[in-house]
């Protein structure tokens, strides 16, 4: 069950992270008030969102880490997090940025990451 909660929290964390890192690019296109913000305002906006990212990421790592009774090593946590990040980013990009398309080389990179997950879990 700890593994499930860890992955769920990592997914939620990455949704917030992706929006904090890239959402402002779309908001600048969509909202004139947001486009008028100075860079420090955009950074502050992203930091507020990142607070919620950290509020999920830190518990995910604490719950999931084998040293705290969880099922995952540090390497496994990192690889899981990276794969989740790319999946969330891909979904986010294809939904919110209509001009971005998924190319064959992106799929090849994802296959390599899936292989990384396989290898990191090998004994």
Rounded average pLDDT = 91
Low-confidence stretches: none
Q: Over all CA atoms, what is the radius of gyration?
A: 17 Å
> What is the terminal separation in angstroms?
21 Å
Structural write-up:
By secondary structure, this protein is mainly α. The chain is built from 5 helices and no strands. It has helices at 2-30, 32-35, 39-64, 74-96, 104-120. Helix 1 runs antiparallel to helix 3 (39-64) and helix 1 (2-30) packs parallel to helix 4 (74-96). The longest helix has 29 residues, at 2-30. It is flat, with a radius of gyration of 17 Å. It starts with a helix and ends with a helix. The mean pLDDT is 91.
Structure keywords:
about 0% strand; about 80% helix; mainly alpha; 5 helices; about 120 residues
Give a brief description.
This protein is mainly alpha-helical and 123 residues long.
Task: Outline the fold blueprint.
Blueprint: H1 2-30, H2 32-35, H3 39-64, H4 74-96, H5 104-120
Helix pairs in contact: 1-3, 1-4, 4-5
């Amino acid at each position: 069950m700890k593994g499930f909660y860890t992955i769920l929290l990592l997914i939620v964390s990455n949704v917030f992270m992706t929006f904090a890192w890239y959402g402002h690019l779309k908001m600048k296109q969509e909202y004139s008030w947001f486009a008028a913000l100075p860079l420090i305002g955009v950074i502050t906006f992203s930091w507020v969102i990142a607070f919620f990212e950290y509020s999920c990421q830190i518990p995910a790592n604490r719950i999931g880490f084998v040293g705290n009774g969880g099922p995952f090593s540090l390497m496994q946590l990192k690889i899981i997090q990276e794969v989740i990040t790319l999946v969330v980013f891909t979904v986010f990009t294809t939904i919110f940025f209509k001009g971005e398309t998924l190319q064959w080389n992106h799929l090849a990179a994802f296959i390599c990451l899936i292989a990384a997950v396989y290898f990191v879990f090998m004994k």
